[in-house]
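quick q for whoever's on today - can somebody do inverse folding on this one?? i tried earlier but teh output was garbage lol. tokens:
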């Protein structure tokens, strides 16, 4: 998933660079980065709004796997007040992914019985 690559290979390097150069990460450092991350999260949130089905379930589980794996990275990278929107959107996305996957999972026996 692209979000995983961005966080692990780009943002961690940016974080280390800013830490080494400026000795701390200030809100202004993340202004440009924030819009990119928000776009990724909004794209994934759109998946939760798509039509229910087995393929959506697989996609939601994949999104959950990635976000769960990035939890520590997100906590380290987006811990300041300037990143509150990213944290809020991420938490909302995780809830929507979990609830969407759960709904589809419980509907699967109904779909199987109708075919």
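ok took a stab at it. sequence:
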């Amino acid at each position: 998933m692209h979000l995983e690559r961005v966080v692990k290979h780009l943002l961690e390097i940016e974080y280390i660079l800013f830490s080494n150069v400026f000795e701390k990460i200030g809100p202004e450092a993340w202004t440009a980065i924030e819009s990119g991350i928000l776009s990724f999260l909004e794209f994934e949130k759109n998946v939760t709004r798509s039509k229910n089905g087995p393929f959506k379930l697989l996609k939601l589980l994949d999104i959950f796997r990635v976000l769960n794996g990035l939890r520590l990275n997100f906590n380290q990278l987006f811990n300041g007040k300037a990143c509150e929107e990213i944290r809020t959107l991420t938490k909302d996305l995780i809830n929507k992914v979990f609830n969407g996957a759960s709904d589809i999972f419980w509907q699967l026996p109904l779909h199987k019985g109708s075919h």
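fwiw The first helix runs from residue 2 to 22. also DSSP finds five helices and no strands in the chain. so keep that in mind when u check it
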